[in-house]
Amino acid sequence: MSTRTTVTPDAVRRAALELFAGKGYHGTALSEIAARLEIRTPSLYNHITSKQELLAHILLQTSTEVLDDFDHAVAGLDDVAERLGAAVRVYALRHATHRHEALVVNADVAALEEPVRSRVLELRRRHERGVRDLIIEGTANGDFDVEHPAVTSFGILEMCVAIARWFHEDGSLSAEDTAEAHAELALRMVAHRLSGDRPVSDPTDRELTAGKRTT
Amino acid sequence: MSTRTTVTPDAVRRAALELFAGKGYHGTALSEIAARLEIRTPSLYNHITSKQELLAHILLQTSTEVLDDFDHAVAGLDDVAERLGAAVRVYALRHATHRHEALVVNADVAALEEPVRSRVLELRRRHERGVRDLIIEGTANGDFDVEHPAVTSFGILEMCVAIARWFHEDGSLSAEDTAEAHAELALRMVAHRLSGDRPVSDPTDRELTAGKRTT
DNA sequence: CCTACCGATCGGTAGG
DNA sequence: CCTACCGATCGGTAGG
Questions:
Q1: Count of Cβ atoms closer than 10 Å to residue B82 Cβ
Q2: Considering its fold, how many domains does chain A have in total?
Q3: With 70 as the cut, is the pLDDT of residue B66 above it?
Q4: CATH code where residue A156 lies
Q5: Looking at the whole model, is its pTM more than 0.90?
Q6: Residues 170-209 of A with CB under 8 A from B
């Protein structure tokens, strides 16, 4: 049983990732990681320098990739709704395709030691700010109708994060469909409401681009 | 320094709650709980029977209250949008006013031992199902326009859960305003869209009641 | 990659 | 409420 390939630093990280995701950093013993690789605990130190380093690698890499994803997703897009849709799509997709990483990032930042912790938190803040600024921009130019941009951006981001908690690859929805569904939900959250119960104070230049169709 | 009141089982639970919320169940040592109460670790056992019991109490109580909240919130309301709004409002409010409980529930279910773990998960599933059924009902009778009820209900619920991660009592929004903002977001997520870019494949009986206006 | 072993700390008990 | 102490386990090192 078990594939029994040669142990590499990457294999250790993968084993750690799955265990951290399931039981948390503090809830996972190095002996369990070793057992999964069918080696003894001290042998892990041929591939890593500490347990903490395993955690740091996962969180730094993931946080960096999230920010890169965002930058690439919005690059070249003009319409702010398109940019928000693309940002949400790629963020949601990541949480469906990288469930374990996402779970660890969100459950175990507290277990990170400085200075890595601050770096990770800074990367996350940058991403949050990027999304929030899109919402602020769309609200300012009248494309969106949002009362609390910060609350709305947290709501959008966190429902995407939650995908990691319920998504299953064998479910009825593919990762891509799930991502698309979240982009749609996000655009609904910022869209103008039906029925004129919310008077559009500044309808300048906005014909009826309200649709999310992009071609 | 410190209030220095007599230690009670409830005081132990409160100290444990704050520490679990900040560092997780496995990341918190009983010695830290004792230190916060200015007693020695073994003295804790005059008030509790085990560390695990502390966790079980927090999670069971919170999960039970969430379900009670839901039942009371929707009771007596007729309109499905009103019921969904009320359910979201009360759930969001709890996550703003009981941040620590919410953080522990979501981070440390995995640390719960059986059979309590199964009971807690069952309570959570019941609540999820309650909200999802509202969305299904509203979609079926035409009040809502939702393509993926399960995804939508997870999205709504999880953005509320996330409140516990970012809400601060001294922020610009009160707990009540935050709850109201989330009810609004949830209703947007299920509402009919502006402009007919989504061809209504089955327009039976749904003329253009598209609005969510009731009565 | 291993055995042997380290000090520290864990949750918890004995016995006042 | 305490001191004294338990066995188990932790992350990690020595030295092949």
A1: 17
A2: 2
A3: yes
A4: 1.10.357.10
A5: no
A6: 173, 178, 181-182, 184-185, 188-189, 191-195, 197, 208
